Amino acid sequence: MASTYSAEWRSVCEKFRRAQHLTDVESKKDPENDPFRSKYKAREVLKEIYNILKRYDSEDNESEQTGGDHDRDDDHDGEPGCGSAHPGDSAAGLRAARLGAIEYFLGVNHVETEELSAGEEHLMNCMKLLDKCLVSRENVSVFIQARNQLGILWAGRDEIEKAQGFLETAESIYLRYMKEDGQPPTDLAEFFVGEEEELSQQERTRRFEMAYTHTLYYLAQVYKNQEHYEKAGRYCHITLQRQLAFDQFVPLDWAINAATLSQYYITKSCYMEARHCLAAASVIAGLAGEVPSEAAAQESEAENEKREQLRQKRAEIARCWIKYCLNLLQDAKKLLEDNIGELDIERQEELKRARRREEEEKEQGRKSAVLFGSSETSDSICALEEKVSCALPLDFQEARAIFLVGQSHVAEAKEYFQMDGHVTDHIEILQDHSALFSALSFFEEDLERRCKMHKRRVDMLEPICKDLNAQYYLLICRQLQFELAETYYEMMDLKLALANKQDELDAHSIKKFNHLCNASIKYYQKFLDSIRSPEGKFPEKLEEDVLRPALVAKFRIARLHSRIISSDVSAQLQNLSRSLDCYNFVVHYCEENPEARKAVETELELSEEMVSLLPLKIERLRAKKASSN
Fold this sequence. Notes:
Shape: elongated
Helix content: over 70%
Oligomer: single chain
């Protein structure tokens, strides 16, 4: 092979630099009608290099066969060669690595120009060349990056198991190399530079670790596609940690990925990890800079784009914080409620006694967990974590502290996701805000104050529900109608509990109570009407997604009609008859569709009981009315 100091080799290096410049710089300037022009030019240059290397290889092989001396000036003294047909021959290993590198660059070039089959062929050629060699400092980067690219290629074809095989092999190569050698290996670009242009050990390490970080990132996506969520979450976490450690991240992209990972941890009730991800996301997002003012955005298109991007991404992180607070409150509610949905005092006290021991154990586990941050950011992340608990709240004060954090993020998210332009997102944020109030109300012992919390829910959702066009937002309208019906229903139950503590209800209290009953009936009925056909006919068989809500709505309407307070016997009879009709609907539907029984077991049992009792009550009322006449 030509000496690394020869004019011919310097020409090869110059060709390689030109191919890189065409790929990395010039391609960004290519016109829309010829988007791959520079990459096609780079391909031709790479082919030239490949042909030169093949000629060198043939010449060196001839020299070896005749026993002649050949120029080894380009060997890497002191570095272990890779085994080949001639074990210990580092020159042969280096030739294979260089050819493999060019095959790799040609493969990537074809993939980037959407010629996947040709790209696959070059990448497989790269692997065949290297399969003759043992893993060494000279070729380990090529080994890993070729498999990374094949993993991406097969994942793009939805051949997830093939992608997994290439990526897991890349991972095992990295781990074995680090165990057996661990020194910074040769980077792919270094095969085509003079000694004076070789990279520093630090830069070699950075590039090698970046390649492995990509392996882990792609594996996280593969495991997610295979629904191996725990493994995917672990690989995603390690990827994010490495990106920070090796300074290989774009702040906003990293922050969004960390916030997204927090949502996985929430589903597993791993709130300490979820909080850490969110705190890190908020801190790292701050590294992207300040949001440009509206005036600056109007003057510059670039400033406007930056403003929109920063506002959107930070609003998305705020929404993840809302979900964190909401799920923390809701999980605590599930843990503390008794069989009728009220606070179990004995359970509450038991959990409070166990709190200290559990927190100590969690903190010990935390020290061995993979944490984010560098010396510059770790303090900021810790400070943000301290502002919100990761423990399930056990009383109103603890719940309120979490609620207030969630509510502050609601305000932040709504600043960007406004009703004008972001209808669906804005309403979802309002629904989460309503759910925060609902979860907090569980911890409130004062029934009047609890009722006021539900009133806040009504005040934020009712105007939206009235203004929204059901023709375009049918699903959202149904969600809002059902939630408003349930909120009014809960308020009615609270007022009923308060009424039971009084000797006698005054006219104002009766009017308020009846208003809540009628408002709940109205929204349940709106929900049921939304299920009707365009001709106004109620379906004989309910779709699975509305089966339980529809039957629950009928059951609740039945109960509400029976609760309305009236001194007029005729009105009482009318309400009880409507109540009986609704109970009958639930019973008859489940008789005709036995598969529906599981969806409404409790409601069905009570409906069957009321169907047998209400006719007697109605008859007594009719007799009373007849005798009074």
